[in-house]
Design brief:
Order of helices and strands: EHEHHEEEEHEHEHEEHHEEEHH
Distance between the termini: 47 Å
Strand content: 25-35%
Strand order of the largest sheet: 2-1-3-10-4
Largest sheet: 5 strands, mixed
Number of helices: 10
Length: 300
Amino acid sequence: MLRIGTRSSALAAAQAEAVRQALLSHGIESELATFVTKGDQILDRALDKIGDKGLFTTELEMALLKHDIDIAVHSLKDLPTQLAVGLTVAAYTLPEDARDALIAEAGTTLTSLPAGAIVGTSSLRRAAFLRQQRPDIQVVPVRGNLQTRIDKWRNQGWAGLILAAAGVHRLQWHSLIAEYLDPEIIVPAPGQGVLVVEMAQDHQELTTILNLLNDPEIAPRVVAERQVLATLAGGCQIPLGSYATLSHGKIFLTAKVASRDGQIIMTASGEDAVANAATLGHQVGEELLRKGAHELIVAD
């Protein structure tokens, strides 16, 4: 029986359970093992203030290397672009909506929020793009699991909350979404909405099994998106969004970097054959660097 490592939050457990069910559909039995990560423990500081390398993955990766678990399931947007030595991505799987969503009263839109409205988010990226679109609203940081953040929105009288639509969907809370945000404006995090299965490289006997979960159409998209992040040498908590789509054998990629106050937005885009996804991501990242993205990130 395979041992699947996961964070202990309700969303992480639901994601790991989805992978467990996918394996079971192929006749492969598995069980979940839960871990509490550094990012789960430190909730009184913004993510970018506690160091973003492996905040939600390190404990799971250590368990993989010690063979305490066979595989680990992560939200791809939480996985550093540089994996720990001895680990590899075994599958990109179970994609969900990549967009961000506005949690608010039904009928509310980002445009219709009143001046001075308070909107919560845990993401530098979301905060920066929100400020660019609506400099008149007040963006406040909010940490914790999805239920905690939703409770804060309800209990503190905020006008809205921005979350990844994928997580809301996976917990079956669709009714909370007032608006899906345009990915060309509020650009998603690289790999947002995709689950990734990670394993130790010396567990090659698992490759054939885990390849059953791999969605071949996901890989080019997320490889391009994450290559932008890697080219900028950024962690998971820089104000960067990258979003790729596939059509007729081509991949189309847009990426944006913002200053934290949303006053400066740098955009780069391109297209190439699907087979050149990594190259396209690197080229788009290089274009952002030529425009001054590194200085913008360092300044922040």
